[in-house]
Amino acid sequence: MPMEKKIRVLIAKPGLDSHDRGAKVVARALRDAGMEVIYTGLRQTPEQIAETALQEDVDVVGLSILSGAHKTLFPKIMTLLKKKGLEDVMVFAGGIIPEEDVPELKRIGIKEIFGPGTPTERIVQYVLSNISERS
Amino acid sequence: MFDKKKMEEIKQGRERWEQTTLPNWLKQSKERKDAFHNHSGMTINRVYTPEDIENLDYMLEIGFPGEYPFLRGVHATMYRGRLWTMRQFSGFGTAKQTNQRFKYLLKEGESGLSTAFDYPTIMGYDSDHPMALGEVGVCGVAIASLRDMETLFDGIPLDKVTTSMTINGPASTLLAMYIAVGDKQGVPRTQLGGTTQNDNLKEFFAQKLCIFPPKPSVKLTTDIIEYCARHLPKWNPVSISGYHIREAGATALQELAFTLYDGIAYVESTLQRGLKVDDFAHRLSFFFASHNDFFEEIAKFRAARRLWARIMKERFHAKNPRSMWMRMHIQTSGCTLTAQQPLNNIIRTTIQALAAVLGGAQSLHTNSYDEALCLPSEEAVRVALRTQQIIAHESGVAHTIDPLGGSYYMEALTNEMEEKAMDYINRIDDMGGAIVAIEKGFFQREIADSAYKYQREVDEKKRIIVGVNDYAIEEPECPIELLRVDPQVEKEQVAGLQKLKRERDNRKVKETLDKLHYSAEKDENLMPTIIEAVKAYATLGEITDVLRKVYGEYKELIVI
Considering only alpha carbons, which residue of chain A is nearest residue B472? Predict the structure, then answer.
């Protein structure tokens, strides 16, 4: 039986805000669920995030932002990921993101937005069921 | 505290109760849980009796308000004399917009201002820095130069208000700007009242808005403490902050212990400047969170006061009782607010605010119910302020001092908080102090573990959050009106900054920045040279860049 390859996830904090409690809790929950998790640390530029996603060969990118700058920064990140040929990477996001911004963020390719109060288990399940097995 | 014979009667009474009355009840209905705990993991007894405080010495450990060990309050009359200061944190958009919000709050009966800066300001970037993109004026007000500060306080006489500024890494620059505005208004520096947060240690493990490495960060904090002790007698140079430690996931106990330890570190660094403890300690102020567990929070505030008094007296040999005062600002806990059924947050905030008042706060910020969704709207801010006013004027809790003092439960819990906090303090002492603990990731790991444990309890429904993991309802999309900062703010702010850079005397700017560079390399107190630089309209980014060159930048130690 072939060894099952672990899902690789990058948890990234774009923007200047330093609220990393959620990002770290999600990182740990995904790790406890058996995934390889890389956490970027705070204040990453869109370029740094896309570059790390490429270097670390991840399947999933989770973006956490609570500063309100998501409308400026998320589109940049999505463009850079595409530029690097990472259009297959699944991107989800969390933080303080108003409901009315969600349709636009989904349009640019962010698969799901998890707002405050989301159980970590739901994020784990979401990642598991939306990643097709890697060869 | 009790007569020996009476104690014996109580003990016998309890044993009889445990053998007769209690089992009958337990037989009929089991208790809801096998054991009850507070957030700090302390086991809470079924009932508390005089036995739990049998060894408490009233005069030594409780005492009277305004007297050592200040358990019951730092003032002898507390709220019977003057109510706590109702201080709502605010700031967004341009200096002009925040100036209007300040005036609105003053008109509504607020007694002190509290400034929220945007992230670029907090990180020491000018509004036109590439890292500032999308962040200008979003989470606070954008202040890049003295010109913005002049607009922020336009029409607000600085001798009539006190102003708190939530700023840490670049605190010296913002304080210098405030002093410069005061100078322009003709207010003597001895009359300037307010607070700079200026607690750089907690940045490394809690708020994480660090610019410089730990050592120069502590140097900058100490510069302000020293400068204020000599020139700004009414200014609180530092607000030693547990709030962010708690919000990052710490328990009440960890918040208490780590905050007091940071306080110890600042006292030590200031003593090294040749000041005597009684020259500055009376101006150190504290900032705590008030979370949901009502009695735990009150016990934390009381324990903090007594423990700090003891540390100042026994460890630092302070003589002036004021040096032993722990004056505290309290903010209700932002991380307890839910995006679901946001009106419930008003109730949470009320309970937390009540704990702060029963805990003896000097000033209080109550959060707005919509803050899990966005910046607070004007209506939500008003409700938050009204919450404090209702507690102050309608509830009657301010009639007497420390009304929970003497409660068996409260005193037992206060003792346990203090003892366990002291254990942490001893551990950190053994480790080699706050900076070593930061470099080892000790605080970071302790907090991350508690945050994860809390979330697991919520996920597993061991901890019920009303409206989130229980009592949830189908909600209409976005039930409240959200406040948004217009992207135009960033354009306006950047244009204003660039205009300033063209119009000011750039030769003078360069001169003052060179002087600052020299001063930093010589390890002098930087306040005087920073005041000169801001008066020449050097920008926050330019000043911070000089210091970045001398001190280097902090690289985050990543602890998941």
Answer: A117
